[in-house]
Amino acid sequence: MKLLRLRPLLVLFLVVVAALGGLLLRARSHSRSGAMNFAGDALAGGFLRQTSAKAAASAEVVGESPSVEPDALGAMFAARKLIRSASVTLEVARYGDAAARVEAIAAAHGGYLADASATRDAGDRQSGTVTVRVRADRFEEALKALQALGKVESARMETQDVGKEYFDLETRLAAKRDTEARLREILRTKTARLSDVIMAEKELARVIEERETLEGQRLFYDRQLALSTITAELHEPQPFLRGSALAPLREALGQALPLLSASAAALVSAMAAALPWALVALVAWWLYRRLATRRVVRLATER
Q1: Is the pTM of the predicted complex or chain greater than 0.90?
Q2: Between 228 and which of 87, 139, 192, 277 could a Cys-Cys bridge form, CB atoms 3.0 to 4.6 Å apart?
């Protein structure tokens, strides 16, 4: 009986002991995980500090700061491959003087006269187009100087970024040069059959031709990048008195002259078509008169 009375107390004691043991184990596990997290944080912090210190040291060695500065951005923009061109239409006092000044402006900005053409209309008004090439770094200065020559009627500027094409061209050119160097080295050091040597020489000739073509394309890009193109369309002003009292008559005569020319051409064509028949009629009439005269003479003699 006593054991039966003590059994609930024993069960309650065991439950309390189990609960206390669970609490102790959970506290121990939390402390262990906290210690591990702290150790991990410490290691990570040390690694980050070490990495940042190395980055700062390498930046100091190269002479750069860890952050991107405006000078670096300016250098990046300056490294772009830009082909620039512009066209401007100007009204100038005298075409000859303005064209000479355009050429002088091009020479003053490291360029030259590329092309020029001029015309003169019925009113003795001269106009033309002058194309110049100037240094790319002085493109804006030259354009402003040209615009100051007269009254600007229109202006247009174009910019073409060929950075990607230029980079691809340089990459292909470097690959061709490496291939050419390897082929030359193979032909210089290796001994093979005559057929293999001939094939290698043919391949080398093909690579050299492609390399020279790529170099020519890069030279063309270099010239386009070094010099910018400006096209100036110049014309003298319109006369103050554009019309007169005889203007309608002159216009009517101008319209009537083509009609008169067309009618004269039609008349000539008709005469040319009728000329053979006129000759035939003339011969027939002459024969008829001659026969009639003979008849009259014959009748007169018979009487």
Answers
A1: no
A2: 139
